Amino acid sequence: MISALRPCPKCGSEIPADAPEGGCPGCLLESGLNLLAQEEETSASPPRQHVRPAKIGNEDDLVPDSPPPNDARFGIYEIERRPDGSLYELGRGGMGVTYRAVDTSLQRKVALKIIKVGIARRSANARERFMREARMAAALRHENIATVYQFGIREDTGQYFYAMELIEGETLEERVRRTGPLSVRTTIDIAQQIAAALAVAEKHGLVHRDLKPANLMLVSPDGETVGAAGNNEEVVVKIIDFGLAKALRAPADPMSLSRGGFIGTPEFASPEQFEHCPLDVRSDIYSLGATLWFALTGYTPFVGHKVEEIHHAQQSGVLPIEQLKAARVPSGLRSLLESMLALEPASRPGTHELAARLQRCSPEAHHALRTDVALASTAIVILGVSAIFIFLSLRTQNSVSNPEISEKSLAVLPFENWSEDKANAYFADGIQDEILTRLSKIADLKVISRTSTQHYKSAPENLREIAKQLGAANILEGSVQKLADQVRVNVQLINAQTDSHLWADSYDRKLTDILGVESEIAKRIAESLQAKLTGREEQALALKPTNNPEAYDAYLRGLAFEARNYSSSFRPDLLAKAADFYEQAVQLDPNFAIAWARLSRADAHRYFGSSLDINSAARSDAAKRAVEHAQKLEPDSSETLLALGYYQYWVLRDYGAAKTTFERVSKMLPNSSEVPMALGRVSRREGHWDESIGYFEQALTLDPRNVDLLTDSAETYLMHRQFPAALKLYDRVLDITTPNDPGITAEKAGIYQAQGNLQEAARLLSGINEQTSSDGFGQKINQLELERNYADAVRLLQARLAQFHYASDFDKATDRVSLALMQRLGGRTADAKVTAEQARNTLEPLNKDQSGNSGGRVITTSPRQAADLAQELSLAYAAMGEKDLALRLAERAIILLPRTKDPVIEPGYEENLAQIQAMFGENSRAISILTQLLQTTYASFPAPITPARLRLDPIWDPLRSDLAFQKLCEEKQPPATP
User: Is 127 a residue whose pLDDT tops 60?
Assistant: First the structure.
């Protein structure tokens, strides 16, 4: 049985868990409105309440009928009574009377407002307008806005009411009248909270229309009523009746200046409210300016005994600035209030500008500015010493941890697999991935990549915190259920900041019809977030990748396996399974262009990442053949171009061509973090270090929790020897994965070794044994070498060679080389020679194979693989004491992959040559290389050479008597220049 999520069947909104009787608040509003009497609107409308001067008019004639004396129950709400038996009235206003009540269903306190009779008696058009406005108000969620729970009608008396969040506190008006004007600090604090609420309301298209001190409730941060202990105390503001001013006002109003009706309180209303112009958030910003004026002075900026007098005073544009000066309001805040109260809406600040200017007006900002000035000279000195570190490290931290969150930003959480067969989880993963692929093509959206969202649950409770971590304003949740040939996809789009549901839908399809559902969902998301689509984007969304459901199913299985390879460690086994499914997909549908593109990428990645073996040539050829098929079918699609770019990067190592291709794709996939990440890697290979970091930063804004991206960024800082920045990024990776991830902890240990902190490195490597993955094991051997504990290093390597399952002969031979070097450093020269000969016997045939000299079995290696092979052979011959062969092979590695081809890797081969030169007494040549390397940015295991490493590593012992080498060890070298 397929079960759906719980969206409201009428409007699509999710039914909140705390909704009365399980009902949707918006639709409860509509249901109550459908019961309104079919009467024409009356001309009666309540006079407005003023702060200064006194009230105009008398509203007693329109006060709602009192509840029956012995029955104060309105639906599930029951009005509380005071000790004397009277109803617990909280206040009276233009809309009606508010009582303190209890929700008997959920046993919570609420504020129950009984609406005035005149407001309830409306025309059909008025009721329809009210329903629309009230539903929007009920959907608004923000910490500084009182929540509306329900609208209803008491059928036996015909009384209309709505229930909202009960705020235990006092209004801003009551507070000022009780204690006098507020301090600048408190007023700005209140203004910042209201400004944040207005920004959220603006996104929902809502305008309060009656923002004033009487509609602002103040409570202390702990939820208690604010006290009178000074005007600098912290307060939390709650705006009441948000969005209901328009809904609950009759369209004709006897106090209006002309036809069309007046909505608001004259002393706090904007000029356009008097003139019946279209309103937006700038009208509320004007009202907020008048409210802040009152909070600071106890007066409103414009007064009059009649509405016309107030409006005329506004039009004069003359503000009583002396009131602000008398209250000692700083000039910056005075200037802000003047702009908020500008006659023309266009002259007032918007919500973002308002928030920024309020921040600059805060006392803390002024204090910080004075402190900055006082410390300027010291800061300049510090910056001068650490300029590169600050530029590279802080820039990445700030841009990633504090990005500006766009209202059109979106994160798609993992889809739940509701299928009874849990093996169908791949289907849910594939649907999610395909939705993201389509969304990434919409330039007007910011879409967080899957690699950042995959660590979260499918339907978490802490959406706001998750959205903050991801830098997204909206979250898409979903579920997929596959049963035989039936598929149901449920999705819901949520504004995480307000916890309001923007859209929800269910899609029931036959498996043969499921193709294209991702495009429908992506288009609906774009519409909900009001994203503009170009003609090309609409065409891209409408395309179906294949009409063969079996081929599509195989393709989704391949995506699921490939997605699991996105981690800090390379998983050729998962890529092999992905390639097998992509191969099935193209066999079932030879015209499936995207599957051909994915197949090429999988084979190219396996060729690039795997150790040297006999299948290298086959993988290279397979990647080329697949991308050529994709080019014939869809030469200009983003998927084909991505595959081409990876083929140029991973197989051909033509970085210039790859960069050109990826730059072209970046214009087609503006929301793809994969493209800037690829550009970052290619730029790094070209030696463009700063450009590389810029690309990684760009990718991290779209993919802030991508482990690969964070690791790549950390590695780049490691190459720069910016170790603190690298450690922080690795810590972020551990926060996402597990605190004891062996690969990442090993990387951190390598940094501590490079810094000379062997104690901390040893702590991180304490759990490493002979079965640990390659990176962690290599760091452990490196640690034992630096500790000069050759005996334990030898025992550990011997155990690994006897027990560990190696992926290739090459991998096993490299551990034999390490064993031979440890035996040689430990004085066991004869044993070292035997072990090195065993490694040589494995490596030498592979070296001949690449030239085609092994009986017809040819291995076509990449330059990197060939250079790695030459390096390992050089070390084997060095351990055997074969100086000439060792030096010749070490130099060959440099020739195979020169700096012009790979400035990242090649210096590591130079370091290897220096080691061999040191082993055979060529001190001056070794020191010359080391001198250059200390000034070079490059990748080396476990880190580029450092003075601390030179001091500790026994491999450099033959150089220690040389004064030039001693100078390299003692002097702290400046950070490498990008």
Answer: no
pLDDT digits (tens, 9 = 90+) for 698-725: 888 888 888 888 999 999 999 999 999 9
Choose between 543 and 365: higher pLDDT.
543
Burial of 655 (0-12, 13-18, 19+ CB in 10 A): buried
Which range in 479-483, 575-579, 599-603, 733-737 is most confidently predicted, on average pLDDT? Answer: 599-603
User: What's the pLDDT score for residue 150?
Assistant: 78
Domain boundary among 478, 511, 544: 544
Question: 180 and 43 in one domain?
Answer: no
Left, alpha or beta for 158 (phi > 0: left; psi -120 to 50: alpha)?
Answer: left
Helix (H) / strand (E) containing 517: helix 517-528
Active site residue ranges: 210
Looking at the structure of the chain, the number of domains it has is 4
Mean pLDDT calculated for residue range 643-649: 96
Closest CA to 943 of 710, 755, 690: 755
Q: Are residues 324 and 175 in the same domain?
A: yes
Q: Does 713 map to a domain? A: no
- Give the confidence band of 320 by pLDDT, cuts at 50, 70, 90: confident
Gap between the Cα atoms of 657 and 644, Å rounded: 10
Residue 152 lies in a domain: yes
For residue 687, tell me if it sits in a domain: no
For residue 419, pLDDT beyond 70: yes
**Measured distance CA(597)–CA(630) in Å, rounded:** 6
Same domain, yes or no, for 106 and 222?
no
Same domain, 123 and 244: no
Looking at the fold, whether 203 and 292 belong to one and the same domain comes out as yes
In our burial notation (b when 16+ CB lie closer than 10 A, e otherwise), range 453-489 reads: bbebeebeeebbebbebbbbbbbbbbbbbbeeeebbb
CB 41 within 8 A of CB 261: no
Whose structure tokens read 């890797």? Answer: 905
9 contact partners, CB below 8 Å, separation of at least 6? none
Domain span at residue 422 reads 405-544
Give the tens place of pLDDT for each residue, 46-105. Answer: 333 333 333 333 333 334 456 665 678 888 889 999 888 888 988 776 567 889 999 887
Tell whether 808 is covered by a domain.
no
Please work out, in degrees rounded to the nearest 5, the angle formed at the alpha carbon of residue 652 by the alpha carbons of 647 and 656: 90
Per the CB < 8 A criterion, the answer to whether 283 and 207 are in contact is yes
Q: How far is CA 335 from CA 349, 359, 369, 449, in A?
A: 11, 14, 19, 43
How confident is the prediction for the chain on average, in pLDDT? 79
Residue whose C-alpha is closest to residue 208's, from 113, 299, 285: 285
- 243's CB contacts (< 8 A; 6+ apart) are 133, 134, 136, 137, 140, 201, 206, 207, 208
Q: Which of 949, 947, 952 has the alpha carbon at shortest distance from 970?
A: 947
Q: How far apart are CA 381 and CA 390, in angstroms?
A: 13
Average pLDDT over residues 461-469: 81
270 and 324, same domain (yes or no): yes
pLDDT at 356: 85
CATH number at residue 249: 1.10.510.10
Model confidence, pTM: 0.56
Write out pLDDT tens, residues 749-762: 999 999 999 999 99
Q: Are residues 113 and 237 in the same domain?
A: no
Of 313, 343, 370, the last residue of a domain is 370
Q: Are residues 235 and 288 in the same domain?
A: yes
Which CATH number fits the domain that encloses residue 131? Answer: 3.30.200.20
